[in-house]
């Protein structure tokens, strides 16, 4: 294992955190305070500007537990980590603890992702993978009290353990990932693939296969435990899936969301309208990562492509067809699809102008979308 460039990763982490703090400071104050005013904006108000949408729900669960029915769409590990520290420090600490966990998880994920990416093309690929991830237009969710950072930490940790053939560690991390988001249970698929490809190097016996496969049981166990909790609280073992209809999510053919998004953007919504722009953001993220999945098929390890493909298929199979933006939230969901960022880095090295375009476009969009979130305007 090659040693990660510790100070470079810390530098990237802190510079991008500073960018988000500056966006909060200048954007929030200029847009909310009176012209030429002298009223001071408290620090807690600036941090409170990050307490919106899903963050509110996770913090409420951490504080007061699950409230039926819609809270059950949010898996329990993240609020469970927040709760003991915040209970100890008081009611005003929930947001800070949630954001601290999110940012520390991102920092850990950067070190793990570096090790995964360096195997695909060396240190330059690894460094650019981290760069593109941190400046991606919706990377501000890594700063907020959301689950993106924690899920990325656990999934990259699972894959690194698989690459090192530490099957039990991979199973335990997969268990935690399955308690963080519903899609975590699908780590079973890359796990099975990695066990399969180790066969030529092992004495192929039933005992060896069973020893390698046994830890995989931990992954669905995480989902099963949450199912049992849902059943105990609501009487419905799949309550977390049932309540998705509240957000108009339903099962559909993968192409239905694509078709409806095109219809909304180019026919149903007026040019330059909010709905058109919002749909364009989610559509672009989805199609862009689909293209990266295809381009990366022969560039990255097959298990990484499997993981990227099942995540993309999942969000295409459960769109919000009754909304103007059927791919709503996809610009956030793609954040944890780390194989696409590795592919992005490989393409950036092959095509310097592509790299230049990303480092110019991504930070501007990141600052803009961060400000939209801070101002509590509808983002995802």
Automatic annotation (TrEMBL):
<dbReference type="GO" id="GO:0031501">
    <property type="term" value="C:mannosyltransferase complex"/>
</dbReference>
<feature type="transmembrane region" description="Helical">
    <location>
        <begin position="277"/>
        <end position="297"/>
    </location>
</feature>
<dbReference type="GO" id="GO:0000009">
    <property type="term" value="F:alpha-1,6-mannosyltransferase activity"/>
</dbReference>
<feature type="transmembrane region" description="Helical">
    <location>
        <begin position="333"/>
        <end position="350"/>
    </location>
</feature>
<dbReference type="InterPro" id="IPR007315">
    <property type="entry name" value="PIG-V/Gpi18"/>
</dbReference>
<keyword id="KW-0812">Transmembrane</keyword>
<keyword id="KW-0328">Glycosyltransferase</keyword>
<protein>
    <recommendedName>
        <fullName>Glycosyltransferase RgtA/B/C/D-like domain-containing protein</fullName>
    </recommendedName>
</protein>
<comment type="pathway">
    <text>Glycolipid biosynthesis; glycosylphosphatidylinositol-anchor biosynthesis.</text>
</comment>
<dbReference type="GO" id="GO:0004376">
    <property type="term" value="F:GPI mannosyltransferase activity"/>
</dbReference>
<keyword id="KW-0337">GPI-anchor biosynthesis</keyword>
<feature type="transmembrane region" description="Helical">
    <location>
        <begin position="209"/>
        <end position="234"/>
    </location>
</feature>
<feature type="transmembrane region" description="Helical">
    <location>
        <begin position="357"/>
        <end position="379"/>
    </location>
</feature>
<dbReference type="Pfam" id="PF04188">
    <property type="entry name" value="Mannosyl_trans2"/>
</dbReference>
<keyword id="KW-1133">Transmembrane helix</keyword>
<keyword id="KW-0808">Transferase</keyword>
<feature type="transmembrane region" description="Helical">
    <location>
        <begin position="6"/>
        <end position="31"/>
    </location>
</feature>
<keyword id="KW-0256">Endoplasmic reticulum</keyword>
<feature type="transmembrane region" description="Helical">
    <location>
        <begin position="167"/>
        <end position="197"/>
    </location>
</feature>
<dbReference type="GO" id="GO:0006506">
    <property type="term" value="P:GPI anchor biosynthetic process"/>
</dbReference>
<dbReference type="GO" id="GO:0016020">
    <property type="term" value="C:membrane"/>
</dbReference>
<keyword id="KW-0472">Membrane</keyword>
<feature type="transmembrane region" description="Helical">
    <location>
        <begin position="129"/>
        <end position="147"/>
    </location>
</feature>
<feature type="transmembrane region" description="Helical">
    <location>
        <begin position="304"/>
        <end position="321"/>
    </location>
</feature>
<feature type="transmembrane region" description="Helical">
    <location>
        <begin position="95"/>
        <end position="117"/>
    </location>
</feature>
